[in-house]
């Protein structure tokens, strides 16, 4: 109406004519599509058991991934004033446990921790250190500090 050009459309030469055509549209702008998020859900491993739902029962959850803060063994007492360490235990079924131990705890205490977190599981397994070559932990009376297991990964093997 005032024949003024918006600053965004002004040419370098102010004497040059500017033609602006406006079109009125009565439709609404389409909403933007939400970005798709990849890798959602639960990870599965080959050979893992799945939950089976019976018609008149509730689903049985399958525990996968890291078992966060598994209930410690009642016989395992952690002294917070003494040096503590976390040990990740990779079980044969693919799950991982993270246990908190003192440096004076033994390999047998690690076995007791595994046995208490998996009641009814077979106990004829062997523990070995992660690394190359894997070292079997045959001496059950060896402390975590003596075995060099502080902040390490221990594998369960049958």
Automatic annotation (TrEMBL):
Residues 1-42 are annotated as: Disordered. Pfam families: SEP, UBX. GO terms for molecular function: ubiquitin binding. The keyword Lipid metabolism does not apply. Residues 80-157 form the UBX domain. It comes from the Eukaryota. InterPro entries: NSFL1C_SEP_dom_sf, SEP_domain, Ubiquitin-like_domsf, UBX_dom. The keyword Transmembrane helix does not apply. Keywords: Ubl conjugation pathway. Residues 1-16, 23-36 have a biased composition (Basic and acidic residues). Residues 1-30 form the SEP domain. One of its GO terms (biological process) is proteasome-mediated ubiquitin-dependent protein catabolic process. This is Plant UBX domain-containing protein 4-like. It comes from Raphanus sativus (Radish).
